[in-house]
């Protein structure tokens, strides 16, 4: 099967949808335009640092050799030099050129600001990656912290990004925006993101929010597509980038009236295991295929050869109607967001979304 997502770069619009209205049927097919983003990519967040940067390099190289043609990076991951080495190594081994892959990176909160600040952040990322251009550059969070204080402020940064030379950034986009923040971004600047990257998995399905983005010609990418398979997300007592008290607030079940409890790790969910057995796939492949079937690009990550190849094999895992019904029921039973630094940063994020 051949999967791609089609993007509209720098699209300006003045017509906006009803932002928080629930739509009965999500739009499942991306709109037909000009630029293609691979439907499956390789994420680089939290690739094991304890094993040294060569591990990150080897994982990225293996991903490209395996068939991944999208690499997702970020300045905040603090590994872009190792990722860049992996890209160079992988392209060489796979006999590919730079134009054969899609590379995304993200500007971090402390680099928001005017054009000079944003350009400096881009130049640092390109230098670390050893690349001449990015296919996609995202605002990582709608939070500006260059002054030392976290504030929801992103307009100046977005305007600056829209003026970056096309020879160095082909598309710009956003990550982790709420409906109101997206509306404000477009109404203030007239520039619509090409891509919106957000947390999406069977425990956080957000079908209406995907549809609202698609109505504007915005393609959607899912981070954490395997949900709480990440050890940071599995239990409130686990070491986390955010505080344990905040992590507890990530978990919420519609069917739990008492104190919220975390859902089971996604890869241990009995319904997904049942579907995987029925379809002769792994649970991870079921979760990835489900999102890809919605036209959502997925960026799973792993440093292990077996799982890198297994995740890529999700392209061959085909789900049926019964599978989709059961997966929808999983999303009704559990509603869990695993990455939400609102309390930690003292700002409001994700207002107006399903789990708000």
From TrEMBL:
It comes from the Eukaryota. SUPFAM superfamilies: NAD(P)-linked oxidoreductase. InterPro entries: AKR, NAD(P)_OxRdtase_dom_sf, NADP_OxRdtase_dom. The record marks 106 as: Lowers pKa of active site Tyr. One of its GO terms (molecular function) is oxidoreductase activity. Residues 40-320 form the NADP-dependent oxidoreductase domain. Pfam families: Aldo_ket_red. Keywords: Oxidoreductase, Signal. The active site is at 77 (proton donor). Substrate binds at residue 140. Residues 1-20 form the signal peptide. Gene3D superfamilies: NADP-dependent oxidoreductase domain. PANTHER family: ALDO/KETO REDUCTASE. This is Putative oxidoreductase.
């Amino acid at each position: 099967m051949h999967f791609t997502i089609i993007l509209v770069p720098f699209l300006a619009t003045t017509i906006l949808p009803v932002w928080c209205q629930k739509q009965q049927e999500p739009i499942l097919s991306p709109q037909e335009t000009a630029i293609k983003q691979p439907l499956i990519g390789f994420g680089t967040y939290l690739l094991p640092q304890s094993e040294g940067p060569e591990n990150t390099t080897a994982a990225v190289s293996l991903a490209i050799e395996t068939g991944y043609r999208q690499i997702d990076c970020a300045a905040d991951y603090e590994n872009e030099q190792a990722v860049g080495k992996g890209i160079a190594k992988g392209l060489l081994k796979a006999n590919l050129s730079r134009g054969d892959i899609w590379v995304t990176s993200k500007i971090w909160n402390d680099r928001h600001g005017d054009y000079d600040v944003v350009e400096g952040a881009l130049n640092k990322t390109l230098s670390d990656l050893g690349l001449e251009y990015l296919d996609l550059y995202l605002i990582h969070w709608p939070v500006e912290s260059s002054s030392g204080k976290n504030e929801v402020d992103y307009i100046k940064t977005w305007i600056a990004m829209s003026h970056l030379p096309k020879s160095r950034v082909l598309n710009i986009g956003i990550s982790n925006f709420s409906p109101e923040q997206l509306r404000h971004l477009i109404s203030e600047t007239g520039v619509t993101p090409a891509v919106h990257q957000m947390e999406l998995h069977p425990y956080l399905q957000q079908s209406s929010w995907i549809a609202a983005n698609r109505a504007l010609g915005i393609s959607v990418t899912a981070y954490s597509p395997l949900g709480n398979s990440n050890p940071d997300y599995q239990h409130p007592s686990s070491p986390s980038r955010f505080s344990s008290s905040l992590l507890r607030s990530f978990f919420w079940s519609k069917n739990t009236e008492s104190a919220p409890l975390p859902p089971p790790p996604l890869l241990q969910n009995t319904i997904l295991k049942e579907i995987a057995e029925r379809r002769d796939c792994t649970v991870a492949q079921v979760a990835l295929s489900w999102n890809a079937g919605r036209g959502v690009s997925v960026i799973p990550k792993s440093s292990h050869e077996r799982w890198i190849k297994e995740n890529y094999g999700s392209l061959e895992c085909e789900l049926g109607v019964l599978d989709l019904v059961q997966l929808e029921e999983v999303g009704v039973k559990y509603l869990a967001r695993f990455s939400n630094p609102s309390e930690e940063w003292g700002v409001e994020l994700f207002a107006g979304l399903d789990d708000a």
